[in-house]
Design brief:
Chain lengths: 246, 327
Amino acid sequence: MKIVKFFLLIILGASTSCTNNTVQPEETAIELQFLHNVNGDPLELDNIKYTNAVGQTYSIKTVKYFISRVTLHRTDGADITIPDIHYVDIRDDATLTYELSEKIPYGSYSGISFVYGLVPEDNVTGSLGLEIDRLMEWPVPMGGGYHYMKLEGDYNEAGNFFNFHSGSLDGVDYAIHVDLPNSAFDANTSKLNVGLVMEISNWFKNPVDWDFAYWGSGIMGNADAQATVQKNGTDVFSVSFPSSTL
Amino acid sequence: MNYKTAGGIFLLAIAMLSCKSDEQPAYTPTSYDLQIPEGFPEMEIPEGNPMTVEGIELGRKLYYDSILDQNQDRACATCHVQQRSFTSGPDVLPHVNLGWTYNWLWKGDVQGSLEDIMEFEVQHFFFTNLDNLKSDTEYPELFKKAFGTDEITYKRIEMALAQFLRTVNSGNSKFDKVQRGEAQFTNQENLGFELFFTERGDCFHCHATAFFTDGLLHNNALDANPDPGHFAISGDSLDYGKFKSPTLRNIEYTAPYMHDGRYATLEEVVDFYSEGLEKSPTVDPLMKQLSKGGVQLTDEEKAALVAFMKTLSDPDFIQNPEFSGIF
Ligand SMILES: [Cu+2]
């Protein structure tokens, strides 16, 4: 019993000295909120009310994707990359807000960047756990890993489906390193809310006007299609800082 | 400081252990070392129900014993027959790799662990009468061996059944042997494998992972006027016609197919996915060739897909004496 007390004292001593010595650091927690628009307005699911650049009408039924490696760029040049991988499903509210696992120090930041999808190092079959495997697995015969995104809906008429599934194909990396425009901010509060907006219609244009009929309803095995998705995706994301938190 | 704290905790743990040794050693059943097939993820075993040799033995005995049924005229194994990957009849779901399952029954009636679905089976399907077990000559002793007490409760029955079912795993099919480099597909099986795992045949999105199921609910376009499916549980019209994607492991042994057993053979199933799809409002967009009636396979491709599905058969599993009713 003596030994027990002795070590308990050490533990207590160690833990109290710890809180005594440290000054509360000035840090900001960042909470991302995922927003999904079509032509500037919030997405309305399951409604064939949108029109793409080649004149096809379409609906959106499924939006599931990964964002990873969020990086906060300090004006002094130091970058903070958070190693998190976050899965978003528009039909699962719990995935639509997400606090980064690390806080960032107060200061002035020149911008935010992140990876749409998964970098090759993160894109390993089985590494994200069974629940995610079930939802996003990319078959090993097509290179393995995970879908970056499953975007699905109807085009022209109900039941005429497209599956806009993107991912790395046969080991070729089609993830997008997104530098968010106009994303400079000052971290000077304990929490900062950041809206991350996906403009879904931009997947289907600039530079390539996407024709659902031409590409076919499934594009996972088509390297041309995957490269086109990657090109079209560079301007899909933008940032919004809710004014209340500034 | 961290190092010191860690050392302190370690010594503290040792000190506590040595304190305990004064007490009478409590009975502990023999812990069981579950062997997980290569390529399968770890199984989550609830802390409150560790697997033990005695618990598994008890679970197996209960599974094969009609004493669980309130009328004592059927056992679990009456409908869940090992030689058929623990199915029988048109709509019985198989018992294979259930330790990795969390979404239960065709309509997704129950979510949770094996213990949770066992609660449903024992208390709301079999309406087990505990007195039958309590007055039995063997069971009180077997519960004592498994749980250290001869008090028989629903919870302990469910725990024992769950322990047994966590051992009922299949991972030694030809498919698994090919993955491990111990066997080779024929050309036909290889074509079927390619079709299955690419969008040409497009089966992998729902029959996903090492378990050949995503465990989720989908309307796979069986009918223009589908059965209600998960709608009967949730009341949400978006859930109309949705059923659980079943595992395809041991699919050769589990005919007939679909929730109502409408297809007698795998050939009929493949014909359906090839050209038999029916439109209804909640069909899953993953059935992406719906507007063409299906993925439109040639006869050669159809035969290949069936041949591939048969590589998921695990004869060792359906003959494994450890899962059988012969003790
Ligand atoms: Cu896909």
